């Protein structure tokens, strides 16, 4: 059943039916254990919908990215999408952190390198400074019964 809902959601995504995608994916998520690998994929698709729906939906996209990272902490796509949302919301320090974390996983990711340049340029324009040595990498773990609960765990 979750697989069917996932496929139906993917079909709706091709038709730009964002609300339909989210409905199907939410139903699929409710049928899966909260730490199932498909949960990260479903949430990532929901993030793409929120991002396409406009700036007002970026906070929801960020929340979904964080939940996806709870399942798959080294998901560079989720980190990159969240960085793009943070950049759009002028949360450049958080965008920079996520870009940094993607580059620790995939140092030659061209899309991320381009985003890094964009974020750095925006930070310079807004006089925002972040010392790269002070940036910490984090893992996100799901905790409790609800996938809405996350705790941040510092990686050593």
UniProtKB/TrEMBL annotation:
It comes from the Eukaryota. Coiled coil: none annotated. SUPFAM superfamilies: TPR-like. InterPro entries: PHOX1-4 (IPR044517), TPR-like_helical_dom_sf (IPR011990), TPR_rpt (IPR019734). This is Uncharacterized protein. It comes from Gossypium arboreum.
